[in-house]
Amino acid sequence: MLLACRHFGAQIKKLRFGSTPLSTLHFVTSRYLIATGYKKRDDGSMNEPWTTKQIPSQAGKRIIVTGANSGIGFYTALELARAGADVTIASRNAQRVKEAAHRITTALPNASVHTGTIDTSDPKSVSKFAEAQLSDPRPIDMLINNAGIMALPKREVSVDGYELQFATNVLGPFRLTGLLLPAILKADAPRVVTVSSYAHTRGGPTPMTDLDSKESYAPVRAYSKTKLENILFTRELQRRAGTRLLATCCHPGASRTNLGNNTVFMMKLITFFMQPILQSAAQGAEPTLMAATYPEAEPGGYYGPGGLFKLRGHPIEARTTDAAKDLPGAKELFDRLEQLTGTVFRF
Questions:
Q1: pLDDT tens, 5-41?
Q2: Active-site positions?
Q3: Nearest by Cα to 314 from 246, 264, 252, 261
Q4: Which of 57, 88, 108, 132 has the fewest CB atoms within 10 Å of its CB?
Q5: How does pLDDT run across 147-161, given as a tens digit for each residue?
Q6: HSE-up of 269 (CA within 13 Å, CB side)?
Q7: Shared domain check, 215 and 146
Q8: With contact defined as beta carbons under 8 Å apart, do 304 and 290 qualify?
Q9: How many domains would you assign to the chain?
């Protein structure tokens, strides 16, 4: 961020003391503010950047967040509870998710927080969690597919034999969304938010092949493919749902979480050298919260940090790669995921 500020200051100094017209100074300033998270009003002036202070009241809404015992998921749940939502937080470890719920209710004594156990790589675990949620007759206003793993050193497989990143990051969220869809569609203005990653830029090309990484397994490559698949899933879900729900996705940028605890050495090394620019997990949750609550969120929209290298800063509507815009590829992937999971989406 410091380097970005110095670069911006140098540009302003050149424009101010050089011969460049003031109109050019205004243009450069506007572009910089938009890039760092500010939004333009209809009259051309600049709004404040999007922050959690702009989250509308979520009172009366029932929201489920997976992978919410720590990191991005925890702070997503915390802020939604602060905004008045009835939040269910779920993860693989029952004890840790209870501890997370306790931290939320300690910070927010009036918060409505429930817990659940789910391993998104395990079909039986997903089905059991979904059954428990569907036993509650209330609509589900929002599902946030946050749980995920990253760049495992060796190719591991799930209980039903799929590459573990693919099972956890793609098959699980797909299956869970499909199973909960009847309750989601009962809500007045339902949303499904799926957390992707900037790593999706390395996930192409499309249409997606070797989904299970059987032919070739490279840790980062396998992870990147799953994150591209998250975006393709979101956009095809939106296309099929039409106006029945809003599907959005996001990426947290470079944030301090435990996601990289079990990753390859190279990723750990990169994370170590990136420490000066890493943002907190609370800041990393902002794109998810914007995708989840921003009243003007775009159907199939993708949100991420707008600051330094697009890896930190307040969130903006971000850009995806061309591969993530491949609608025929998205449809093909969605059809394949229905086959693999035995989960059919009915609208």
A1: 333 333 333 333 333 343 333 333 334 444 444 454 4
A2: 223
A3: 252
A4: 57
A5: 999 999 999 999 999
A6: 3
A7: yes
A8: no
A9: 2
